Amino acid sequence: MMQTPLTMTQMITRAEKYFAKKHVVSRTSSGIHRFTYKEIAKRTRRLAHSLEKLGIKKGDRVGTLAWNHHRHLEAYFAIPCSGAVLHTINIRLSPQHIAFIIHHAEDQVLLIDADLIPLIENCQSQLSTVKAYIIMTDDDKLPETSLTPVYHYERLLEEASEEYEFCEDIDENDPAGMCYTSATTGNPKGVVYSHRGIVLHSMALGLADSTALSEKDIAMPVVPMFHVNAWGLPFAATWFGTTLVLPGPYFTPKILAQLIESERVTVTAGVPTIWLGLLKELEKKSYNMSSLRGILCGGAAAPKGMIKAFEKKHNIPFMHAYGMTETSPLAVISTLKSYQEEQSEEERFDLKAKQGILVPCLEMKVIGKNGEVQWNGIEMGELAIRGPWIASEYFKDECTNKAFRDGWLYTGDVVTVDEEGFLKIVDRTKDLIKSGGEWISSVDIENVLMAYETVFEAAVVAVPHEKWQERPVACVVLKDEFKGKVTKEELYEFLSPQFAKWWLPDDIIFMDEIPKTSVGKFLKRTLRDELQSYLQKN
Ligand code: AMP
After folding, report:
1. Which CATH number is 433-537's, of 3.40.50.720, 3.30.300.30, 3.30.450.20, 3.30.70.100?
2. Which of 213, 233, 411, 531 is most buried (most C-beta within 10 Å)?
3. What is the pLDDT of residues 448-467, one digit of tens each?
4. Cα dihedral 290, 35, 32, 270 in deg (nearest 10)
5. pLDDT tops 60 at residue 184
6. Residues near ligand 1 with C-beta < 6 Å?
7. CATH of region 9-193
8. Molecular function (GO) terms listed (predicted)?
9. For a pocket test of ligand 1, which of 324, 357, 410 has the largest count of ligand atoms closer than 8 A to its C-beta?
10. What angle do CA 71, 96, 62 make, to 5 degrees?
């Protein structure tokens, strides 16, 4: 067979040739804008040309600090297709971490949304590698800024050529993108994506038993384009000619519901907290959600109660998936097999609440106390994965040897596997609760609590215990209408029949909000610290 290289230039040029009339809908601070893929491709060529004029060479890193919108999409292709490396920077990291990763990646140019300029102004003195700042804005004029030298994105595009030829000298194994993990401990770790990895991962998003993304879809990635490439959806959607809806900055559940309704979105993707928010909005007001064929949810466990509410109350199919920055991210997806569709409703929801089976091309093993675990849904072990879109190292980081061993990525996630090969994430290794030498899954208790009708969010963490080493404590946020009306006893009554006695939390604490990471996951480290001081005081 021929060895034609799998590079990203073929993705954008395919959209340009075959889907010239299809649209990208982009919400920016000034409203909704519509572009055809033909226009996007021309603008992408202009941006690639501008970067070359600014001195960007093959292999250089170009950073982006931006929301989900058309200019960010252009950068998604212009940077790798000019041979450089797209470094998407998580805008919700701490200022120290932002400065750290820009410096560590040695970014040469930064593309920044106008409203995010202060994030960079604050640490400009530490950014010795950055040679130019490009501001992405709808305004004709550049905003006041201390950044220098600074360029206006649209002015640069006007001065560049739409006929610009993308770099031809790209090997499929060349780096195309990079993203740092949202570290819960230490500094963020960089993951570099190759052209080949991105192409094959995009292909996997199109498989019928995966997300089945196709030309007929209208896809709205809510997951930020600064978090694992918005799960690769912008790449795949462009390649397939899928209509893209990019929800822009500072969206609310109401804005998302309105976009789904007005743009007739068929598939959307985000973390569970986004969908809990949308569910709340749908309970307040009725919207026409009939276009949706699927909500793709990952990044943290999707509670069964939430899946049920979407599917049963709102008739919206739910796709639960698992992955991580290191896995591009799609690795596992909960698509039921034909004979599983015939099981009882409860059994089906139980399966959908699991993360699912490995997508084609990937391999896994699950290592427990005594080697590989049995596929019995009970034995727990750490998940290790390998495959063509799984990272093989961290970028210039000594943590590499801990996570990447013998050709496998050790995920740090503890899982069980049932007889059908369905994975269930039991916990992060560091979040499991070790009580009297036995493991308690915080995720299991959280999911049951979140299935209770009065509960909005629940996070369970370990607190130190003299006799048992660790015991679980549950932190619960009630839905607004139930605040002050629900007792701990009521919640214990709901939990008790569902768990062994020793799994029940030692305490249930009501909170106004659960601290979250930069990508909307429960921040258990902070919660553990907050609980320590709360328990000492009380
Ligand atoms: P990140 O690299 O920020 O995307 O985080 C990856 C981590 O999120 C994984 O290692 C898991 O711990 C967690 N995660 C991702 N998807 C799921 C899921 N569907 N259920 C439970 N945990 C998940």
Report:
1. 3.30.300.30
2. 233
3. 999 999 999 999 999 888 88
4. 50
5. no
6. 181-182, 228, 298-301, 320-325, 329, 355, 411, 413, 425, 428, 519
7. 3.40.50.12780
8. ATP binding; ligase activity
9. 324
10. 30
